[in-house]
Known about the structure:
With 52 residues, the protein is mostly helical. The chain has 4 helices and no strands. The protein is globular and about 30 Å long.
Amino acid sequence: MDIVRIIAAIVLPPLGVFLQVGIGFHFWLNILLTIFGYVPGIIHAIWVILKK
């Protein structure tokens, strides 16, 4: 299942975070990071997925 989340995080970073933690602080932070830059959103999403 982590592979699916990582692929989702690369394609659409907030989706990968949502699949891991749901709607919460990290989800909204990832949306903000993705708006400011696609790469920071991907890095944060992968970090959240691999952290758990």
